[in-house]
Each structure stands twice: as structure tokens, then as C-alpha cells.
Backbone:
């Protein structure tokens, strides 16, 4: 019987080629999109699940939200170990940002050749209890216990030494040397940990102020995490910050989605992107399934006699249902095979789009799931057509008196209406997303990004000085360099340092104010907009930070927001006034006011910034910003690399155009935009495919009507419009459904942005016109062909 079903199915496919091709094409596109998204979602949801007892590991974060800042994921390791006093905490592990604190040297030499140790972190000896990491050679725990010992990843060992068996090798640096104690395999992609090299770091038990470590706690089973957060907050925060600062414990397996701080080891993912992708792929499968149902029901009359004959010969309804369902499943499995081919072809491009290295293993359980989904889609999509076709009356069919009910017509029209509504909604969402992204990209930053080349992580002593250093002089001598500024902050990331200011009227601020240490002429170097006062200038040497009798005096340039916070609506009135940091005994004299500056992502609201001349809090490195002539960019890069190696022993420096760095900040939003665009295009394509199939059927069904109208003098255009009217009416209904739902969903999404556009009504009109226009063209193409056929060829059989 199964063989008979297969033969019948193949015969039906051959007789109904167009119907078969449209079904396979629609389902294969929908399934290919679903497979790609499933690979992406599977990868995103697997982050850090492989770590030992991952479900009980939490990372400490400090919440500064009530002080005007966000959540910072770094903490003091010594304070972290004191959490062991509580029975809920079983073990503590830490990774220390040595590049940030310069507790270790990142620039080394091997046989007189310089290298930079990429992503170097300090680690505690119990690292293997928290991270699933394979040691290739040596002992990782011992390497993290011995001073001046280092562990290299396989790729770093290969890059530096050309091999991986390097235990015992020596790396020289300006303050001594490292001995390679272990080599470990490179970390997999699906982890938030981002180190490539590890070094042993000593933590001073008496120093509980320096905050530079990622501290992880393994908690006992059934621990009340919320209660423990409150307990730890009360232990560490008291005095002026009591009730305003708090500690949070973030689950390890959620960090990939929830950790958004600029201090993260790696850029995390966005749950929103995963949900959007999954939702859109489900919509594509639904649209493909709707197409399958519509076209199968529409073609049912062609198989009415077959059903009648089978019933007359004794076939039961269940046998007929099984036959038609087997055809549906066969189409779905064939579409799945084509979909897998499409996935293999599109996977490299999709990887570039989502920024991942995804692959599919056909020998894994994933393949079983794909087959199960394909069969399920085939069964669900074919269920209604199977029951509908098998319900035909043998007597009516064979007597030529087949009266088709209104149910099939209602189902076809309903599904086509839903498809068109989805297409309209997706087009509106896609266009709105593009405009919102463009709005974010064009928000005023307060500083110039063009013609600025940023040299990152230059040692403070090599560039951040009152008198120009040898390094700065050599940079200035490079052809094409027009100006040099030095700051202690990465403008496209975040500000590391803050203070609690006391305003000129003696009132203390209730929030933290970010500060940026700078060299002279910062307004000119960064392209700031000066509203009042002047720039830092060498003519006013007293502006440079100077400490006398325990009091530090500094010249400061503040943003407009700071001036208004201090109570000055006319920003010029604050020039010459002094703002104090009583905690550090610092007095800052205001010499200039600039327009608000947004550091990091332009979506961030923080723009109350103070620029301090010649003063930096704890920062061991600085950012040298070169204003350049773009024509000399390539040569300037080479000259900068050479000068850094010779003058500052800095190797393989990070050098980027400021415009490129800022563009990278919005890369996540751009990915969402591209994903929505692609899936919207696919949805519209599948909707057109379904419309084409139904229009083809409707045109064939009304051929005689077309011929009679043409004989009676109807024009081709009028015939086209008559045939298209039915479909355009359905599109009108779909627009009425799509508008309110889309307006609510898009408005809810836009509400997540501090700076956002208003919904544009012309977008709604454009989406309706696009769907209506495509529908009319699709139907018109077929209708015009029918209207161009000679009536005699159709009516002669009558």
C-alpha cells in the first residue's frame, strides 16, 4: 500500500507540475530560513552551559544606577573572597584585567622580536573548577600559582613561537620576564570568557579599593540569590553610599544576553535578535504552510474524479487521508532536502551577518529534529487538504454534479489575508527599523569622528605629560598628522572614572559625574563645540594638575549638562568658578563649557562630563588621538607602529579610525536591521508565491468567463481588473488588520530607546501600496495572458 501511495504521489506531482514546484519552492525557502535560525538560536542559548556546575555559578556586579551610571561587572577580588564567610558561597574565582591596571606587562620580546600579548588576564589557581578548559601542556593551576608564570592559548603560542610545545620558554618584558607554565586550547566561541593568555597575579590582602576583577561565586544548591545579594550589599556598602549602591549576582549562563557593560570581555548577544529571528522564521514557515494549504485545496477539483473512483472501488476515507497526507509529507521531505542544500550555500553569508561561526552536523540530534520538523510541517500543512479532498461524494463527483462548499473558499481567502497582513506588518517594521537606526547613527556625539586616528593603550608616562614627550614629538613629525590630543578614555566605550562634585554654591551632587583626563587643546583635538570660555592652552600653564599641601588644583572644561546641574542656566556664568571633589581634596576651576558629549553608544543618556587637564584616576594607559590628512592614512599607520616600538616598547598596537570604532558600536543594531530586511523580503516573496498559485488557479477556473467577456467587447485592462478585484479586496482586509497590530508592536519596540523617532504614517501607506501593487502585478500578469488568448480556443469546446 505504501508503494502504491508513493507511485500515486509521483504521478500526481508529474500531472500538476506548477502546483508541485510552487509548494516545494515555498516550503524549502521557509525551512532553510528556519534551519539557519535554529542553528543561531542553539548557539546563542548554549553560551557557558558547558562550564562545570554552570547553573550554580554567579558573577558579582556593582549597580551604580541610582548614581547616574549603569551596572559594572568588575569587583575587588579580596572583598569577593570574604563572601566565603557565608555558607551559601562554596568557592570564589577571579579574572583580573591586567591591561587596565597594568599589574602585568602586555608587550614582550622573544629573540629580539616584539609581540603584544592579546587579551591577557590574571587568573586565580582554581580556574579549572570554573571553566571547562583543556590543558595541552604543563599545569594550568600551577602556572597560575607561581609568580611570573604565564599560560598561553594554542593560537597565541603558535603566533609567537611557531609551535605549541613551549612550556619553559621565556618571554622578556621591560620589568623582567615570564616563564611559560602551560598551554591550553583556545576557548570555544560560545562562552562570555574572552582571554587568550593568562598570567599569575598577586592580590594585596590589604587593598580593597582597586576594582579590576571579574569575581565569580559558586553557590550552594537551593541558595536564595536575592537574599544573598542583599546580605553582600549590606556588607560592602555603607556610609554615604548606603542605599544608593548595591551588588547584583548575575547567573553565568545568562551573561551572554544580560551583560551589556562596556567592560565585558566580549561583546554579548541580544536576546531580542534571537527572538526576532525565531519569530520571523516561524512566520515564514507559516506562510509557506498557508501556501501549501491554499494551492492544494485550489487544485482539489482536478483530483475529484480520482477520489470518486477510489471511493467507488471501496477506498475508505482514512485510506484517502493517508494517501494525501503521504503526498504532503513527501513534498515536505523533498523541500527539506533542498533546504539543507540552501543552508550549506548560505551559511557563510549568514555567519557574516550574525557574527558567528555556525556549522551543521548531520550526524547529530539536530538532524533528527530537522527531519521531525519537516514531517510535522508536512502533516499539519496537508491535514486540512487531505480531509477536504477525501470528503468528496463519489456519487456527486462521478455524476458530474460536484458542488463545492464555501468552506474551502473561506479557508483560502482567510489564509491569503493573513499572509498579506504579515507582509504589510513586516514592511512597516523593516522601514521603521531602518529609520530608527539611521537616527541613532546621526545623533550628535559632541565630538568629531572624521579624520581622527586613535592609537589605543599607550602608556600614560609615554604621552600624558605636561611637556611633550619624545613619543608625542615623533608623532607630530609624521607627515599628514595635523594635531595631537591625549585623553585617558576610549570615547567609543565608556568612562572609567567618576567623582562626586561639590558645586560652587557648596551643594554636593547626588550622582556621580564621569571625568576624562586630557592634555592641552582638547576642544580642538576632539572637535568639541565651545559654548563659553576657552580651550586648554599652554599659555595657561596653571591649568595643568598640580598638588600642593595635599590639595590638587586642576583646570576643567565641563559640558553644558554639568553647568546646568550646578545651577547655571547661562553656562557662561560658571566660568572661573571652582568645583570640588572633597573626597580626594581636588579643586577644579572651570575654564570652558562645551556642548554635551556622548561617550560610548549614542543611546546612552550620560552626557554630564568634566574634562580634567593633566589628571587621571588610576588609568595606566592613554588614548592618543591624531587629527590627520586622510591621504596619508596608510603611511601614518606604519610610522606610528614604528615609533611606538622604538620609543615606548609597544608592539602590535591597536590603531583605528574613530569613525570606524563608533560604527562598530552600532553593529548589533545593524545586524537586527539586516535580519529583518532579509526575512521581510522572504515573507513578501512567499506571499507573492501564494498569490501567484491562487491567481493561476482562479484564472484557469474563469477562462470561459474571460472569453465571453472578450467576445462581448471587454478590453484586456478591464478583464485584468475584474480578476484582480477579488485579491485586492482581500489585501484591503489584511491592511485593516495589520495597521493597528503593527502600530502597537512597533510603538512598544520604539519605547525601548531614549532617543527615538515617531512612527511615520507614510510608511503605512507605502507598505499598503507595495503589497497591493505586487498583488495586482502578480494577478495581472496571469490575467493579461488569459485575456490575450483567442476566445475561440476556449469556447470551441462548448
Residues:
Amino acid at each position: 500500500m505504501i508503494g502504491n501511495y508513493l507511485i500515486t504521489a509521483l504521478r500526481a506531482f508529474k500531472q500538476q507540475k506548477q502546483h508541485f514546484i510552487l509548494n516545494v519552492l515555498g516550503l524549502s525557502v521557509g525551512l532553510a530560513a528556519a534551519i539557519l535560525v535554529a542553528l543561531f538560536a542553539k548557539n546563542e542559548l548554549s553560551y557557558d552551559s558547558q562550564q562545570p556546575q554552570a547553573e550554580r555559578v554567579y558573577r558579582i556586579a556593582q549597580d551604580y544606577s541610582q548614581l547616574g551610571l549603569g551596572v559594572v561587572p568588575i569587583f575587588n577580588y579580596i572583598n569577593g573572597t570574604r563572601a566565603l564567610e557565608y555558607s551559601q558561597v562554596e568557592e570564589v574565582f577571579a579574572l583580573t584585567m591586567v591591561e587596565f591596571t597594568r599589574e602585568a606587562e602586555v608587550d614582550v620580546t622573544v629573540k629580539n622580536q616584539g609581540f603584544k600579548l592579546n587579551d591577557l588576564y590574571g587568573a586565580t589557581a582554581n580556574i579549572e573548577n570554573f571553566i571547562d578548559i583543556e590543558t595541552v601542556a604543563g599545569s594550568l593551576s600551577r602556572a597560575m600559582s607561581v609568580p611570573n608564570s604565564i599560560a598561553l592559548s594554542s593560537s597565541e603560542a603558535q603566533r609567537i613561537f611557531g609551535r605549541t610545545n613551549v612550556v619553559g620558554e621565556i618571554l622578556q618584558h621591560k620589568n623582567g620576564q615570564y616563564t611559560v607554565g602551560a598551554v591550553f586550547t583556545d576557548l570555544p566561541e560560545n562562552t562570555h570568557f574572552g582571554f587568550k593568555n593568562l598570567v599569575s597575579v598577586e592580590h594585596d590582602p590589604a587593598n580593597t579599593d582597586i576594582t579590576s576583577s571579574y569575581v565569580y561565586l559558586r553557590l550552594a544548591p537551593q541558595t536564595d540569590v536575592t537574599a544573598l545579594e542583599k546580605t553582600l550589599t549590606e556588607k560592602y556598602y555603607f556610609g554615604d553610599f548606603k542605599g544608593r549602591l548595591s551588588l547584583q549576582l548575575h547567573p553565568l549562563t545568562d551573561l551572554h544576553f544580560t551583560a551589556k557593560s562596556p567592560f565585558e570581555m566580549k561583546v554579548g548577544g541580544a536576546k531580542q535578535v534571537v527572538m526576532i529571528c525565531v519569530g520571523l522564521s516561524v512566520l515564514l514557515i507559516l506562510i509557506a504552510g498557508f501556501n501549501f494549504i491554499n494551492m492544494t485545496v485550489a487544485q482539489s477539483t482536478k483530483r475529484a474524479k480520482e477520489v470518486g473512483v477510489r471511493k467507488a472501488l471501496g477506498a475508505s476515507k482514512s485510506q484517502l487521508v493517508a494517501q494525501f497526507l503521504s503526498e504532503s509529507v513527501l513534498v515536505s521531505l523533498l523541500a527539506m532536502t533542498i533546504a539543507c542544500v540552501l543552508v550549506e550555500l548560505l551559511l557563510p553569508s549568514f555567519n557574516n551577518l550574525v557574527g558567528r561561526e555556525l556549522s551543521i552536523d548531520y550526524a547529530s540530534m539536530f538532524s533528527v529534529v530537522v527531519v521531525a520538523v519537516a514531517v510535522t510541517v508536512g502533516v499539519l500543512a496537508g491535514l486540512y487538504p487531505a480531509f477536504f479532498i477525501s470528503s468528496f461524494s463519489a456519487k456527486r463527483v462521478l455524476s458530474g454534479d460536484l458542488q463545492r462548499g464555501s468552506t474551502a473558499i473561506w479557508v483560502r481567502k482567510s489564509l491569503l489575508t493573513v499572509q498579506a497582513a504579515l507582509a504589510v506588518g513586516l514592511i512597516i517594521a523593516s522601514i521603521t527599523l531602518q529609520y530608527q537606526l539611521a537616527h541613532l547613527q546621526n545623533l550628535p556625539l559632541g565630538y568629531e569622528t572624521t579624520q581622527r586616528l586613535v592609537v589605543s593603550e599607550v602608556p600614560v608616562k609615554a604621552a600624558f605629560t605636561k611637556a611633550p614627550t619624545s613619543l608625542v614629538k615623533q608623532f607630530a613629525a609624521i607627515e599628514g598628522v595635523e594635531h595631537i590630543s591625549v585623553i585617558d578614555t576610549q570615547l567609543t566605550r565608556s568612562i572609567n572614572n567618576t567623582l562626586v562634585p561639590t558645586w560652587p554654591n557648596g551643594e554636593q551632587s547626588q550622582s556621580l559625574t564621569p571625568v576624562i583626563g586630557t592634555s592641552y587643546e582638547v576642544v580642538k583635538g576632539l572637535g568639541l563645540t565651545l559654548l563659553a570660555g576657552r580651550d586648554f592652552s599652554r599659555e595657561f600653564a596653571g591649568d595643568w594638575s598640580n598638588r600642593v599641601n595635599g590639595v590638587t588644583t586642576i583646570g576643567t572644561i565641563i559640558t553644558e549638562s554639568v553647568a546646568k546641574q550646578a545651577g547655571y542656566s547661562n553656562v557662561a556664568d560658571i566660568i572661573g568658578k571652582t568645583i570640588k571633589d572633597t573626597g580626594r581634596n581636588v579643586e577644579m576651576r572651570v575654564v570652558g563649557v562645551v556642548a554635551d558629549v556622548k561617550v560610548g553608544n549614542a543611546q546612552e543618556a550620560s552626557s554630564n562630563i568634566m574634562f580634567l587637564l593633566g589628571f587621571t584616576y588610576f588609568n595606566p594607559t592613554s588614548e592618543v588621538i591624531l587629527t590627520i590628512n586622510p591621504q596619508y592614512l596608510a603611511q601614518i599607520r606604519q610610522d606610528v607602529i614604528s615609533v611606538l616600538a622604538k620609543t615606548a616598547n609597544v608592539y602590535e598596537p591597536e590603531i583605528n579610525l574613530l569613525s570606524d570604532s563608533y560604527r562598530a558600536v552600532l553593529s548589533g543594531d545593524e545586524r537586527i536591521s539586516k535580519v529583518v530586511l532579509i526575512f521581510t523580503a522572504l515573507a513578501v516573496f512567499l506571499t507573492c508565491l501564494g498569490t501567484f498559485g491562487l491567481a493561476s488557479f482562479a484564472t484557469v477556473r474563469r477562462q470561459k468567463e474571460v472569453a465571453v467577456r472578450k467576445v462581448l467587447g471587454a478590453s484586456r485592462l478591464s478583464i485584468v481588473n475584474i480578476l484582480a478585484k477579488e485579491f485586492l479586496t482581500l489585501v484591503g482586509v489584511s491592511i485593516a488588520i495589520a495597521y493597528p497590530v503593527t502600530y502597537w508592536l512597533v510603538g512598544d519596540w520604539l519605547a525601548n530607546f531614549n532617543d527615538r523617532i515617531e512612527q511615520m504614517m507614510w510608511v503605512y501607506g507605502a507598505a499598503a501600496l507595495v503589497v497591493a501593487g505586487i498583488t495586482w502585478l502578480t494577478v495581472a500578469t496571469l490575467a493579461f495572458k488569459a485575456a490575450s488568448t483567442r476566445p475561440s480556443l476556449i469556447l470551441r469546446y462548448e
User: Anything to note?
Assistant: The first helix runs from residue 2 to 15. Residues 548 and 586 are 11 Å apart (CA to CA).
